């Protein structure tokens, strides 16, 4: 016979906080509170989530510490990221650690290319072709910022073609670092000697050749001399 409702112990405080954090994350990831937008006030969250003020406060504080939310004095609490790893990576991204960033990119992108050659679909190949064409057009246009974005989009398309959800999530967390390494290598202008052809990478994936795809992906991410 189950115990009376009023005799059932309330869940421990830590459990309630974790549940509340999960509920907040779900609403952020679901787009209910988009990046750049303000989340409801504390009293509104208390009413909506059915928990106490202290529980809401601790859950919000945890997500602020994780870099997902930001409290702005006199304005409210805003969503600044949907990815808890991205702010951590961004804080660690300094000029003297660029060699490490390139090594991490190499680890991700070489394996992504190898898997993409094994798993790519017709839709993936179309996405790769489109991303490559956009990258080439940006290079011809001569705008560094546009080229950096289209280059990142091509690499992201390769990772997507690998069809490994965890790899895609981890790669997304280094997106800022990825763009920074490309921007640093480009400098202030798109000079011909800095151009790197990515068509062979796409063709290796299209051919279903994992070994060649891995070689092509790693060729332009060699550590700097003396690193």
From TrEMBL:
Keywords annotated in UniProt: DNA-binding, Transcription, Transcription regulation
GO molecular function, one term: DNA binding
Keyword Transcription regulation: yes
The HTH gntR-type domain, residue ranges: 14-82
TM spans (from-to): none
Signal sequence region: none
SMART domains assigned: FCD (SM00895), HTH_GNTR (SM00345)
Annotated Gene3D superfamilies: GntR ligand-binding domain-like (1.20.120.530), Winged helix-like DNA-binding domain superfamily/Winged helix DNA-binding domain (1.10.10.10)
Record-given protein name: FCD domain-containing protein
Species of provenance: Micromonospora peucetia
Organism taxonomic ancestry: Bacteria, Bacillati, Actinomycetota, Actinomycetes, Micromonosporales
């Amino acid at each position: 016979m189950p115990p009376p409702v009023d005799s059932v112990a309330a869940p421990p405080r830590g459990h309630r906080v974790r549940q509340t954090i999960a509920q907040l994350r779900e609403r952020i990831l679901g787009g209910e509170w988009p990046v750049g937008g303000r989340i409801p006030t504390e009293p509104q969250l208390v009413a909506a989530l059915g928990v106490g003020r202290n529980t809401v406060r601790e859950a919000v504080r945890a997500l602020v510490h994780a870099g997902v939310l930001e409290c702005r004095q006199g304005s409210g609490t805003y969503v600044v990221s949907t990815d808890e790893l991205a702010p951590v990576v961004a804080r660690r991204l300094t000029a003297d650690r660029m060699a490490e960033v390139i090594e991490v990119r190499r680890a991700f992108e070489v394996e992504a290319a190898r898997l993409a050659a094994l798993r790519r679909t017709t839709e993936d190949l179309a996405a790769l072709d489109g991303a490559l064409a956009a990258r080439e057009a940006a290079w011809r246009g001569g705008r560094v910022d546009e080229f950096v974005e289209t280059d990142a989009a091509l690499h992201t398309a390769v990772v997507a073609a690998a069809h490994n959800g965890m790899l895609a999530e981890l790669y997304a967390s280094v997106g800022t670092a990825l763009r920074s390494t490309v921007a640093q290598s480009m400098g202030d202008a798109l000079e011909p000697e800095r151009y790197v052809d990515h068509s062979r990478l796409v063709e290796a994936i299209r051919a279903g050749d994992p070994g060649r795809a891995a070689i092509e992906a790693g060729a332009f991410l060699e550590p700097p001399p003396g690193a």
